[in-house]
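[Primary structure, fold]
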Amino acid sequence: MRVAVIENMRNTGLGALAAALDEAGAEIEWFRVWQDGILPLDISGHDALVVLGGEQSALDDEAHPYLPELVRLTRRFGDAGKAVLGICLGSQILARAYGADNHLGIAREFGWHGIGVTAEGRADPLLSALGGEFTIFEWHADTFSLPQGAVRLASSPVAENQAFRIGRAVYGTQFHFEANAAVVEQWKAEFPDTIARIAPGWLENHAELAARHGGAADAAGLAIARAWVSLIEREEVEMLSQASA
């Protein structure tokens, strides 16, 4: 199982997703576009694509000139029936790839928050194990309209489109399900000034908040990660299925 991971910002971290991919024996190839702008040449070398978060917006083509090609790449993976996962900025890029509108600076959330699962989400492989609501980590200011043909899987008062699916296995999550306790600790250590500015008091209350919400969020995040990884189809399996048809 070969998975391409697009890192839009230094030291983003895979967290719960790393654990699920490791359990599945996946081979991960990192593309650190924040450093060199290099993306996969085509979709044939990987069975799945993950697009992680970042501080830029999904429309920031001038400062991040690789973005238009990344938008096209996510669409090519999705149109080929391969598993695609966009997290936070990645979900906003996915929405752009499928013709939706990005809305900048109108949906600010930080920290652990409750997310409501839609009726469609309760029946979807990604979220079906989580019931009607779960707690997960958020860090975003932007949001997006629901792409045409997408199914809304989760929602919140701040961001209506917290998770969606297109086709078989193209998923976007506005929330950071990968952000387990270790990832949150890393962000806390690396971005204290930013966190203090956008969420006054959070750093001082982190220990209490983590004790209250961290365990449930970690469990939900790992369940989501395992569910998405289970949807990755290896190319050789697809080829055998076609040969026998």
User: Anything to note?
Assistant: The longest strand covers residues 109-117. The chain has a mean pLDDT of 95. The radius of gyration is 17 Å. The first helix runs from residue 16 to 23.
